[in-house]
Every structure is written in structure tokens, then in C-alpha cells.
Write a structure and sequence with these properties.
With 141 residues, the chain is mainly alpha-helical. Helix content is 60%, strand content 11%. The chain has helices at residues 42-46, 50-123, 125-130; strands at 3-7, 14-18, 25-27, 34-36. The strands form two sheets. A two-stranded antiparallel sheet has the order 1-2. The longest helix has 74 residues, at 50-123. The radius of gyration is 48 Å and the shape is rod-shaped. The N and C termini lie far apart (139 Å). The structure holds zinc ion. Residues 8, 10-11, 13, 28, 30-31, 33 line the site of zinc ion. Zinc ion is lined by residues 8, 10-11, 13, 28, 30-31, 33.
Length: 141
Amino acid sequence: MSEYKLSCPQCGQHIRCTEAHFGRQVNCPTCQKPILVARPKEADLRTNSPPAAVDKPKASLLQIVVISAVAFGLCAGLSFCMGNYYLQQRAQQKDLEQARLKIENAEKLKAEKERKANAVAATAPSTNTVGGGTTSPARHE
Ligand SMILES: [Zn+2]
């Protein structure tokens, strides 16, 4: 005598019955609702559930496609953001470098000017005062 499993349509409780119950009503042991035990088809008795096994690869393939698409989108977005970030960082570094170079150049020029001024003052202190705007040959002590 082969056993047959069915689940209660009310509470989902799995109920074991035998061929003797086919076509008859049984009471669910959990919710006490009467359940009509339908005679299962020959195919259902032989194999458990072959159609579900066929459907699975399709679903998983679709899942893989969806997941990979999402992952690709995420990666693309992330790399785009990262690229932008690095570009910004690099641009900022470039700006800083240029600013630093400018300051260095300005300081160099200033130092150069001061050195030249000092050199001129050291070599010709008298002409410096005379050529300051006055044409009078007034002499200073
Ligand atoms: Zn039930």
C-alpha cells in the first residue's frame, strides 16, 4: 500500500494518507477542516515534481543575467565615480603644485631683485642718491 502526501488548503499542514483515502474526506489534524483527498495522477505518483526541475535553470540564468547586469552597472558607476574622484584629486594636486611653483618663483624673483638692489647699492651708493630725481649737483656729506 503506497502512501500519498497532501497539504491542507487551509493551514498547509502536511497530511499522510493511503490509497484507501482517495476520493474521501479526511479531517485536518491541525485545523480540523475537512479535506477532500483527490486521487493523484499516475505521473504524480511515479515522480515527485519534474516540471520544477526544468524551470529552475531558466530562473537561475535570468538571475545571473540580472545580477551580472546590476553588478556591471554598479562597477561602472563606481569606477566612474572613482575616476572622477581621482581626476579631481589629480587636478587639485596639479593646482597645488602650480601654486607652490608660483610662490617659489615669486620668492626667487624677490630674492633676485633684493640681491640686485643690494649689489647696486653696494657698488654705487652715491649715484643712487643723485639719480633719485633731483638734477641739482648738490653734494651730500
Ligand atoms: Zn488544516
